[in-house]
Amino acid sequence: MTGPLGYVETQRVVLFTEDDPLVLRGGGRLDHVEVAYETYGELSPARDNAVFVCHALTGDAHAAGLHLGAKKRGWWDNLIGPGKPVDTDRFFVVSANLLGGCSGTTGPLSTNPATGAAYGLDFPMLHMSDLVAVHRRLLASLGVARLHAAVGGSLGGMQVLQWVIDAPDEIDRAVVVAASSRLTPENIAFSSVAREAIMSDPDFHEGRYAEKGVQPRLGQKVARMMAHITYVSAASLETKFGRRRTGSGDDWTMGPDFEVEHYLQHQGETFLDRFDALSYLYLTRLLDYFDPFADPWTADRIRSTATRFQLTSFDSDWRFDTGQSARMARELAACGVAVDHVELPSPWGHDSFLLEPPGYHDRLRAFLVG
What we know:
By secondary structure, this protein is an alpha/beta fold. It has helices at 128-141, 155-166, 185-199, 217-231, 234-240, 259-272, 277-289, 296-302, 322-334, 360-369; strands at residues 11-16, 22-23, 29-30, 33-40, 50-54, 80-81, 86-87, 92-96, 147-153, 171-177, 308-314, 338-344.
């Protein structure tokens, strides 16, 4: 029977310590790594039904279900649950906050054991492989050695790709939605402007704002407002807002007046309460440098995989357009990897991967059980 998950709880576990540190791809190390995660469904006796969900840039571990006392369900609740495409009656689903995040997993606002203060900009630069290493360790702690599938959209889809490269024998099915194997110059430019807005805020204090009890709110708000424009389509904004105003006639003002302006103001304000500016800097920079097929080592590693890939893009997504998914499909196929790529129609732009465009959920469901 199809239905929503009930109440769920975010759990936390320490996976790396000073005696067993996380050695980073760039050569640094983290002596304390804690991870926030949630699980849904039951692990089978054969331990062969695990599905790992990789979240997008500003996501968290709460992918589905409802926290006690909360009103908002998990960010992929329409996809995960009993009878849903990621069926928790069939699969044991794991969702975890990524390294560098700010929702329970170690990141730049975490305490640096060496100083007793927050890392700030002393937090090391991250590689996508570092995110994978942490989540692989999490699965090992849960008794999972192999995944039935790894599923991710946007940044999460890129993490899925890196996971197969780093561990080509550990995943049966890889689902990559609205993602890319490398950012376009335009995408890098968007992220650069967002970071500049944050770091130019007088309250940024070279990343030490937490010690001063402030937050670079204005810069972070502007960064989110700009980014949100790239997540939706022109058609969806036209349909939802048009040129409707909250004022009337010749009552013109420099303040927000058009409904679309108020919408972006709301998106920026709500972002301040749930995400940290430093995590935004680190994770957007991680995406800028992500380019796995530029490394000849990648082809050698992934050529041995039996993982099957399903790539899905959306015709109205201009942030990670279909051409980027098609390029990834060609790169995988050139390495002899089984890959299927389809573009689906959707009016909602990049955010389509979080919604229910026609054919999307059925396509994913069939792949997971086929």
